[in-house]
Amino acid sequence: MGRANAGKTTVLQRICNTTDLPEVFDGNGNKLNLTLGISNCYQRGYHNIVDELVFRSNQHFVFHDSCGFEAGSEDGFKKMKDFVIKCSSTPKLKERIHAIWFCIPINDYERPITAAEEKFFNECDTGNVPVIVLLTKADTLNLLAIGQLRDKGYDMRKAKARAGDLEKQLLINMQECIAQQLSQCKFAPKAYVPLVRMNEQQSGDQCTKIITCTANALDNDALQKLLISTQQVNLELNIKYALQRKVQQLNWDRQFNDGLQRDNVFTGFK
């Protein structure tokens, strides 16, 4: 989800470890022949969120793209809202969505949240489907940090050298500002993930943050296992969650055995 040019396609490409564009299928699983190129799908006015996006590099993920909804686009917003509500509550597993990544670019420092985004979080009840806000284009904060340091009298060389620490603080401030604003909405997001360097091919650590946050937000253990096994960007993440599940199972077994022993003790006193 997210406005146009929010970095949605880049996020999906990095998650699936590819630079290729996805194949597009309609709601019945038929591949669409987009002779004008899939980039047309992302132009304003194209709002067929029902279509499925699948990358050849990882065909286990099935994505749906809001293709950008703007303030005033009532028809596009209604289609998106109807789709989200229907697919977050359907009993049919094949038609269900399991998580929503909502991209908010933070390169607009003065107005990071648009009216359309507030409308989404006030009107779209996603039920048990967690909404994770991805703060995209955070790299642009580096230029803001350099500019602020230059305003304080630093020359360009020293401003660039000191910009890193200020950039981190600006990102923290921006995330807190966005979280505070969205927390007042009726259906606030469940978590926030700031993303940097997503335009670089080596962005595995950022993808790991997305997958980890999403897995933690899911309240279904089976879905957690499915998500972790499907992702291909971090083998260590698979191992980590496998070990966590094993430890949890051992703890459950110990608690169960302790309960049996207590029952036996009580039975012996009768």
Give descriptors for this structure:
11% strand; 3-stranded antiparallel sheet; 270 residues; disordered C terminus; mainly alpha; globular; 8 helices
Overall mean confidence score, pLDDT: 79
Helix content: 40-55%
List how many beta strands DSSP finds.
6
Major sheet attributes: 3 strands, antiparallel
* Tally of helical segments: 8
Your description of this structure?
- By secondary structure, the protein is mainly alpha-helical.
- Helix content is 48%, strand content 11%.
- The protein has helices at 8-15, 74-89, 115-123, 141-151, 156-182, 204-217, 221-230, 235-269; strands spanning 23-25, 52-55, 58-63, 100-105, 131-136, 191-194.
- The strands form two sheets. Strands 1-2-3 form a three-stranded antiparallel beta sheet, with no helix packed on it.
- Helix 6 (204-217) runs antiparallel to helix 7 (221-230).
- The radius of gyration is 22 Å and the shape is globular.
Task: Write a compact overview of the structure shown.
The chain has eight helices and six strands. It is mostly helical and 270 residues long. The longest helix has 35 residues, at 235-269.
Summarize the helices and strands and which ones pair or pack.
Layout: H1 8-15, E1 23-25, E2 52-55, E3 58-63, H2 74-89, E4 100-105, H3 115-123, E5 131-136, H4 141-151, H5 156-182, E6 191-194, H6 204-217, H7 221-230, H8 235-269
Parallel strand pairs: 4-5, 5-6
Antiparallel strand pairs: 1-2, 2-3
